[in-house]
Design the sequence.
C-alpha cells in the first residue's frame, strides 16, 4: 500500500539554505523559454577569441571575425551589470570586470569569456551569442559557460554544445528610466499612522 | 482538533538563522511558537477544511465572473473606473493566479466559516510551506512525534509546479519579485517565492516596490533600467491602482502575479457578494453592504473596511453600539458588515486557520493564535500535525 501523504514529499534542504552569492543587478532577458521551444537542437561551439575560431574553421576567417564583433556589441548591450566593481568581482572573480558607461549611468560588467557560434555546417546564416564564465569561488557560475541571462551551458572545458534556436535570440536591451517612486506612496501615508509595529503590507 | 504542548527544539533559532527565517521574533515578541502544536484528524482536514476550501474558491470565482461585467458592482467594490476594463480583460484571458489564503474559523466540529479571502498578497507563506514542514520532519526524526504524523501542507511542492506552469503560459524564463522596504516579513515571503521559482527553473530578480521606475519605452524598470516583463508583487492592487504609476499599468504590459482580476477577491465586498450568490451556505457568514444593513437581523455584527490589512479598523457592534474596536488607517472606501462569529478558544488563545490554495488547489493550512478576539499582526504562528 502506498501511503498518501498530505505534505510535500521532498524539499531540497540544500537549496533552501541561505548562503547567497551576490546576484547581478542586471541580466539580459530572453523572451522565450529555451527548454520549451526550439526543440530542434543544433551544434554550436564556444570560441574564446577570433583566432580560436579561425584556426578551428579554415576558410571562415571573415565569418569568425564578424561574429566576434557581433558578440562584443551584444555583450555591451545585454551583459550583466553591477553597481560596483566589488559586486561584479564577487560574482566573476578578481580582475574579471571592467567599467562601462552608458546614458543610464556607470556600471561594471564582466569581460566576455568567449562567444558561442552555430556550426558553419548548419544551413542558413550563422548565429552568435556572447558567453561568460566566473573565476570566483563564491559563484555557482564558476568554470561554467553562461549567457547574459544566466543560463548555464555546462562545464567550461566542454566547448561543443547542442543548443536550440532560441539560444541565439537577442536579449532585450536595458531601457532608460524617466521616473521612479510611482509605487509605494500608500505605504508612506499609512505608516505614519499609529505605532510603528506594522511589519507587513501583505495580509 | 487539539492543542498539544510540545518541547521546542533546543537549536531551532540556529536552524532559523541557517535557513534565513529572519522574522521568527518581531518587535521583541515571539512570532514563531513551537511550545505547542495543533493536532487534527485526517477526516477533519479533508472533510472540514480541504474540501470546503476548494468549494469556497470556486464560489469566489463565480463572484469574479459576476462582478467584472457589472458597473454597479465594480463601484461597490471601490475599484477605480480606469481599471474596470483591464480587470475584465485579465479575467477574460484567465491570467494565471499563483496563490490565496482563506481565513477560516473552525474548532474541530461543524462547518468552518469563511472570514475573508487573502487573494492578492497573502503572507505567512514561508513559515507554512517550509518552516513548519521542517519542524515536523525534525520532531519525527528525534522521536518527539510518532512516525506516522503528517501535515496538511503541500504548499512548496505545488508552488514550484505552479511557477513551471506560469512560465510555460507566458513563455518566460525569468521573473521579477517585489515588496516594500523595511519589512523583514515581506522580504522573507518574497525570497521564499523566489526560491520556489528558481526551483522551477526561472531566473529570479528582486526590486523594491518603491524603486520601480517607468522607462521611456513605457515599461516598468528595475533599479538598473531593465524592463520588468513579469512581476510578482507583494503589494496590494488597491494601493497600486491609486498611486502615481497607476495610469501606466496597462501600457507596461506586465505579466502580473497576482493577476488584476484578483482585485475583486482580496476585497471585503466579496463577503456580502458571496452571501447574495450562495445564501445560507454552511461555510459562509451572513454579510451585508452598508446600505443593506436593515436586512441583518443579527444582534451582533463585525464591521470591516472594504480594504484593510491584518485586523486594522475592525469594530464589533452589538445592537448598533461599538463594543470592540481596532484602530488603523483604513476605511475611507467604506465598510461591510458580517455576522459576529467568534474564533474558537483553546485556553486563552483565539485560534484562526489560514487555508491555502495554489491556483485552485487546496494546499495546506497555517494556524495563528492571538490573545485578543481580533487577530492582529502580532499574533503567533503555531505548527500543526495530522495524526
Sequence:
Amino acid at each position: 500500500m502506498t501511503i498518501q501523504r498530505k505534505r510535500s514529499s521532498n524539499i531540497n534542504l540544500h537549496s533552501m539554505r541561505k548562503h547567497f552569492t551576490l546576484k547581478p543587478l542586471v541580466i539580459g532577458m530572453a523572451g522565450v523559454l529555451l527548454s520549451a521551444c526550439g526543440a530542434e537542437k543544433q551544434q554550436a561551439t564556444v570560441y574564446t577569441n577570433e583566432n580560436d575560431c579561425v584556426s578551428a574553421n579554415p576558410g571562415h576567417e571573415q565569418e569568425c571575425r564578424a561574429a566576434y564583433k557581433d558578440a562584443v556589441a551584444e555583450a555591451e548591450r545585454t551583459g550583466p551589470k553591477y553597481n560596483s566593481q566589488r559586486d561584479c568581482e564577487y560574482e566573476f572573480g578578481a580582475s574579471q570586470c571592467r567599467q562601462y558607461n552608458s546614458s543610464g549611468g556607470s556600471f561594471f560588467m564582466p569581460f566576455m569569456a568567449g562567444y558561442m557560434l552555430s556550426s558553419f555546417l548548419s544551413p542558413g546564416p550563422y548565429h552568435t551569442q556572447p558567453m561568460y564564465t566566473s573565476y570566483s569561488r563564491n559563484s555557482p557560475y564558476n568554470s561554467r559557460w553562461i549567457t547574459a541571462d544566466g543560463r548555464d551551458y555546462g562545464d567550461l572545458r566542454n566547448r561543443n554544445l547542442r543548443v536550440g534556436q532560441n539560444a541565439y535570440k537577442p536579449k532585450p536591451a536595458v531601457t532608460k528610466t524617466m521616473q521612479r517612486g510611482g509605487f509605494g506612496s500608500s505605504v508612506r501615508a499609512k505608516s505614519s499612522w499609529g505605532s510603528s509595529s506594522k511589519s507587513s503590507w501583505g495580509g | 482538533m487539539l492543542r498539544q504542548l510540545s518541547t521546542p527544539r533546543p537549536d531551532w533559532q540556529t536552524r532559523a538563522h541557517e535557513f534565513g527565517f529572519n522574522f521568527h521574533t518581531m518587535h521583541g515578541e515571539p512570532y514563531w511558537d513551537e511550545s505547542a502544536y495543533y493536532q487534527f484528524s485526517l477526516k477533519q482536514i479533508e472533510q472540514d477544511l480541504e474540501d470546503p476550501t476548494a468549494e469556497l474558491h470556486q464560489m469566489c470565482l463565480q463572484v469574479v465572473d459576476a462582478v467584472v461585467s457589472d458597473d454597479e458592482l465594480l463601484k461597490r467594490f471601490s475599484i477605480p473606473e480606469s481599471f474596470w476594463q483591464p480587470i475584465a480583460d485579465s479575467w477574460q484571458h484567465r491570467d494565471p493566479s499563483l496563490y490565496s489564503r482563506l481565513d477560516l474559523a473552525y474548532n474541530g466540529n461543524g462547518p468552518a466559516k469563511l472570514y475573508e479571502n487573502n487573494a492578492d498578497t497573502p503572507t505567512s507563506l514561508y513559515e507554512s510551506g517550509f518552516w513548519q514542514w521542517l519542524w515536523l520532519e525534525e520532531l519525527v526524526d528525534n522521536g518527539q512525534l510518532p512516525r506516522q504524523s503528517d501535515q496538511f501542507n503541500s504548499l512548496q511542492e505545488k508552488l514550484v509546479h505552479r511557477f513551471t506552469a506560469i512560465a510555460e503560459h507566458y513563455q518566460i524564463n525569468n521573473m521579477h519579485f517585489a515588496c516594500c522596504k523595511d519589512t523583514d516579513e515581506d522580504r522573507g515571503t518574497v525570497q521564499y517565492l523566489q526560491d520556489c521559482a528558481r526551483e522551477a527553473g526561472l531566473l529570479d530578480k528582486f526590486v523594491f516596490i518603491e524603486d520601480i521606475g517607468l522607462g521611456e519605452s513605457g515599461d516598468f524598470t528595475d533599479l538598473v533600467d531593465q524592463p520588468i516583463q513579469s512581476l510578482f508583487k507583494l503589494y496590494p492592487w488597491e494601493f497600486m491602482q491609486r498611486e502615481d504609476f497607476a495610469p501606466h499599468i496597462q501600457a507596461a504590459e506586465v505579466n502580473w502575479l497576482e493577476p488584476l482580476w484578483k482585485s475583486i477577491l482580496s476585497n471585503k465586498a466579496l463577503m456580502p457578494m458571496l452571501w447574495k450568490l450562495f445564501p445560507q451556505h454552511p461555510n459562509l457568514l451572513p454579510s451585508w453592504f452598508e446600505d443593506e444593513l436593515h436586512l441583518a437581523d443579527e444582534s451582533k455584527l463585525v464591521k470591516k473596511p472594504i480594504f484593510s490589512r491584518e485586523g486594522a479598523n475592525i469594530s464589533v457592534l452589538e445592537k448598533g453600539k461599538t463594543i470592540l474596536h481596532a484602530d488603523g488607517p483604513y476605511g475611507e472606501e467604506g465598510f461591510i458588515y458580517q455576522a459576529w462569529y467568534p474564533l474558537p478558544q483553546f485556553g486563552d488563545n483565539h485560534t484562526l486557520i489560514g487555508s491555502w490554495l495554489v491556483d485552485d488547489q487546496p494546499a495546506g493550512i497555517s494556524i495563528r493564535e492571538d490573545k485578543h478576539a481580533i487577530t492582529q499582526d502580532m499574533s503567533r504562528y503555531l505548527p500543526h500535525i495530522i495524526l
